[in-house]
Amino acid sequence: MSFSDLFDSEFKQRNKGHFSAIVRVALADGTLHPEEKSFLDKLAAQLEISETEYEEILSDPLKYPINPPYLHVQRLERLYDLTRMVHVDHHLEDKQEVMLRKLGIALGFTPSNVNYIIAKALSLVDKKVDADTFVYEMQHMHK
Question: 0.85 cut: is pTM over it?
Answer without folding.
Answer: no
